[in-house]
Amino acid sequence: MAGEQLASIGGRRLRITNLDKVLYPETGTTKGEVIDYYTRVGPTMIPHVIGRPVTRKRWPDGVGTAQHPGQSFFAKDLEPGAPSWVHRLPIPHSGGPKDYPLVGDVPTLVYLAQVASLELHVPQWRFTASGERGDADRLVLDLDPGPGTGLAECAEVARWAREILGHMGLDPFPVTSGSKGIQLYSALPPGQTSEQASALAHELARAIEADHPDLVVSSMKKSVRDGRVLIDWSQNNGAKTTIAPYSLRGRAHPNVAAPRTWDELDDADLRQLSFEEVLARIDDIGDPLSALGFHAGGRESDDGPLAAYISKRTAGKTPEPVPSDPAAATVDPSDLPRFVIQEHHATALHWDFRLEHDGVLVSWAVPRGVPPTPRRNSLAIMTEDHPMDYASFEGTIPAGEYGGGSVTIWDDGRFELEKWRDDEVIATLEGRPGGPLGRVRLALIRTKGAGEKSQWLLHRMKTDAAGRPQPDGEVVEASPQADGRTPAAEDEPSADGPAEDARPEPVPDLPESAPEMPVDELLAQAPPLAWPPAPADLRPMLSTTATPEWAETAARSWTGAAWAEAKWDGIRAVGVWDGESLRLWARSGNESTAKYPEISGAALALGSEPVILDGELVALDERGRPSFPLLQTRMNLARAGDVAREAKRTPVTYYLFDVLAAAGRDVTRLPLTARRSILEHVARGLPETFVVPPVFDDVREALETSRRFDLEGVVVKDPASTYRRGIRSDSWLKVKLTRTQEVVIAGIRPGQGSRASTFASLLLGIPGPDGLQYAGRVGTGFSESTLRMLQDRLEPLRTDGTTLVGVPRADARDALWVRPELVGEVEFAEFTPGGILRHSRWRGLRPDKSPSEVVRES
């Protein structure tokens, strides 16, 4: 194998040489093995690098040894002799543009390995379809251990970062770097510049450092890193790169930047992985980073399944999901396929009928909707395939954008497929319980044309699949548009005309607030306000974290009725009115007036005397729900032009919940009930960008309402409390919502390291129609005493087999099974489409429950 070979790889011809050359002397790993690794890992790696310019680190003569390292160099420009089929795009440099390679196929990876490009580094952005530098789509935190620290300390810091990122809606994915540390990747919402991402990462690093100064440092100075973990936030800079997931490292041993699971980070024996181990893991468990990957979907080829969809849309200009979002939806092949029917008020009203097939939503526009009876057919016009994330999309597409108009889900659910041919589709659809569709057997029959814009008939079958007559359905009726009218449904569907003005659905009405009090009398009791206010006078009062039980108990002990407010997922802002203009101050003490001109620049009827307000700046999504990720598009802007443009795309609302001063009087020493009356009086006549949310008089009702409308939680307050500037007080208790689920313990995975005598995690099940259905694992939330107690309780229940259904091979491989007799409870973030608990954490045993009583929570 020492000479040259002409190989055919993926339809490309490539000359490869010196396959026996040793590139890693300490392990004897050859160039042939390196090429084999990149060939086999390619399909898994490519989604994480596709569309990104690749900077390579090359070792033509190998990496050498620890005592005598080999010479390496960075390569940005593609070599003149590179095959013409290697895709490349230019990036300007001071010395002229350089052509960077783009990796979109296995042959390109093999070519790079052939020229000893062991390490592949990429930025956290991709090129746009026109070849320009795109927005940042990933956030990366590089946890680099300083002297005296290692992977265990990096894993601890990673868990702290995970908690913060998770609350921001930026769930991170860990990667052991293959060198010393750990990287965390999070998908960013569309429209983020690299500067914004870098600023966000810097703030995160500083926040974690402030909470854990003994172990964390955010400064790049080497002199302060002994015994600490550096959170390197700088790699989000658009000009910088990070080692790509699944890339080899040019160290003494051929380790890999390996995506890991969070359970693995809890392992006391956590270590870097070699390329052989990574290939074995992929065979066993797939790609733990798959949710963050991006498959070309038409960007790298003209015939991709989503090429037409992407070509008609630009992320950031439409609220629709665009596949350049790296947090692409995943499909669980074990579930029935999905369908969605969306009511679309464009130039003409129509219904979009979408069926999951081969990883996309095959779509038709249906002007009259689903026929209510077999006696009437509906015309259906095939449109472009849509991404799977579109199955949950509701919102308003801006006028002038493709498909401009409001989109709402008319019904959705799962379907059983009978036939799928190029000219005929037959399926039985079952919509939401109580929804307008019900269970219905439908046929789509092509009558004219092919592909996009072909014409079909949508037919309601007379009988179901078993031959039983099907009942007639409800007549499809349109929801009123923003102006109250219902458009005619006879028009042909149109997807590119101007839309009617449609506002997002607001957060539903909540219970009424406390009764009004005589405001003039209250103000007369307050002392004059010291003016101008000192910075300390603008520090907001803070709340204490509490459980629902603690908050309910506290509310019963306070004088007067319970007082609970919705907790809004935004940023705190103190508004200072000087009689002419409003200035906004962040909790940090920094002024943010210029960032929110729709608030600070609004015409306000607040009078000629000073007023100081306390509230939350909130961005609402297309459902009218608070969205912190959307708000991030505003938080780090500085240039006036950028602020003005983003304010139109992502307006904010100022939710007011307290007042510190009114009519030139300091009202902080008045009780909350009195301040509330003053606030409602002051806020009368303010524009709609200012909202005074109602108050609940029942804590449990407040929690249930917040949960029902996907709010962040509630803040329970003592109605008699004064306003204590800058103080975190038990008079205000914040309760964040946590989902819980009862589970049946069906097995354990053996522990290692400090858990060698107990277990690493419990395998969980929830009874379902097919038996005890696998629901995932839980490996956190255990104290040492709990671990020992559970080990003692489970040991007598050991058995050779299991009735648990749907256990992945990787989890079953080393499982120790137990009889499913014990019931426990976990808290968790959400269920995956396949019914697996995400981010589960142990809460405790439920001896009061039997396995037969366990049901999946909605």
UniProtKB/TrEMBL annotation:
Keyword DNA damage: yes
Organism: Microbacterium lemovicicum
Keywords: ATP-binding, DNA damage, DNA recombination, DNA repair, DNA-binding, DNA-directed DNA polymerase, Exonuclease, Hydrolase, Ligase, Manganese, Metal-binding, Multifunctional enzyme, Nuclease, Nucleotide-binding, Nucleotidyltransferase, Transferase
Domain ATP-dependent DNA ligase family profile: 645-765
Name of the protein in question: DNA ligase (ATP)
GO biological process, one term: DNA recombination
Keyword Zinc: no
EC code: 6.5.1.1
Renumbered residue ranges of the record's region Disordered: 465-515
PANTHER family recorded: BIFUNCTIONAL NON-HOMOLOGOUS END JOINING PROTEIN LIGD
SUPFAM superfamilies: DNA ligase/mRNA capping enzyme, catalytic domain, Nucleic acid-binding proteins
GO molecular function, one term: metal ion binding
Reaction catalysed by this enzyme: ATP + (deoxyribonucleotide)n-3'-hydroxyl + 5'-phospho-(deoxyribonucleotide)m = (deoxyribonucleotide)n+m + AMP + diphosphate
A Pfam family annotated for this UniProt entry: LigD_N
Needed cofactors: Mn(2+)
Family: In the N-terminal section; belongs to the LigD polymerase family. In the C-terminal section; belongs to the ATP-dependent DNA ligase family.
